């Protein structure tokens, strides 16, 4: 039985109520590109290098403590120190996203 993972996304003054199944998408960036289509989002295609898929995760995801690949270095290079700000390409779509609030950030 698949259990829906429901969460809220804030983007450009709008609120989106999104839903997915565990591992339906490769990562949060892929889900956001598919469901919301933010412009110029995820330029490196999920490698954790460009910093164009920044999100702020509120109400702590269990995945929020796990950093993968190049994420730490990329966030450091662009001056991000807030632990709630992540690269969405490095966040897995799993139960850790259930009931969180995601805010898409401007990468400029």
From TrEMBL:
One MF annotation (Gene Ontology) recorded for this entry: iron-sulfur cluster binding
Pfam families recorded: Fer2 (PF00111)
Domain (2Fe-2S ferredoxin-type) ranges: 43-93
Name recorded for this polypeptide: (2Fe-2S)-binding protein
InterPro entries: 2Fe-2S_ferredoxin-like_sf, 2Fe-2S_ferredoxin-type, Beta-grasp_dom_sf
């Amino acid at each position: 039985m698949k259990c829906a993972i429901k969460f809220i996304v804030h983007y450009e003054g709008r609120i989106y109520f999104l839903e997915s199944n565990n591992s339906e998408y490769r990562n949060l960036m892929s889900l956001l590109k598919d469901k919301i289509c933010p412009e110029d989002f995820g330029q490196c295609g999920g490698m954790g290098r460009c910093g164009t898929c920044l999100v702020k995760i509120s109400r702590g995801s269990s995945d929020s403590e796990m950093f993968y690949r190049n994420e730490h270095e990329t966030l450091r290079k662009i001056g991000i120190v807030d632990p709630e700000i992540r690269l969405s390409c490095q966040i897995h779509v799993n139960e850790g996203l259930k009931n969180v609030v995601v805010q898409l950030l401007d990468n400029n």
